Task: structure prediction
Amino acid sequence: MTALQAAAFGLIQGLTEFLPVSSSGHLALLKSIWGFEDVSILFDVLLHVATLAAVLIVFRKRIWKLILSLLHGIRGRADEGDRMHLKLILMLLLATVITAVLGIGIDEMLQPASNIKLVSLLFIVTAGILILSSRVKPGNKGYKELGVRESIITGVAQGMGVFAGISRSGITISAGIFAGLKREEAGEFSFLLAIPAILGAAILKIPELGDLQGSIGGLPLILGISAAFFSGLISLILLMKLVRSGKLHYFSLYLIPLGIAGLIFL
Result:
């Protein structure tokens, strides 16, 4: 892999990990276009770490509140705000468990493939979900009202993100909106939920690090990681602005032509 190709992979990973257009689908397209069968496992893991760092930076205030509330809860000093954040932690754990069970189950039973035709079709499905979520009247539920129902719906939605072409962020934000959450809470909950999802994806790759197939040099590695981090940071900030304004459907204007082109030409 050349330095330019590594930077392109990092850029695509960073942009599409958070924008509701499916990172796995775009990487599958890129591999198909460039003829790559395998990408370095180390490279893949570090790209995930780079995008995870972007999430931690953007949501650092909320994450810090969650940590402090957990410490206060352990010490028996939790106030009303702490109790809300402790409840949020429990709901994140519930959604994560549901995602893991569903995602692993789908992967083992159906072995979701990166078939380009299927990926292209699922791009169009994602576009439809985004359009529907933008037409739904915003709910009034904040974190105080967040409960088991909303967490289950979002966890199931994230589990469906195992399919390349289905956007994890798009389907989870939409699920939160469909469940009655305010747009901003639906967006933030989706990305807080992304932390264990991205971390888990990276950890699952670690046993494969001994496989040197698709090795990559130092410069391409640095360029890819940097591109993933900075593009991820920018795209995450941009997306949260679009979530608040209810404009996720804008991405359907990109996904539908992309899906049609993939069905016809690839």
Summary: The chain is about 75% helix and 0% strand. The chain has a mean pLDDT of 89.
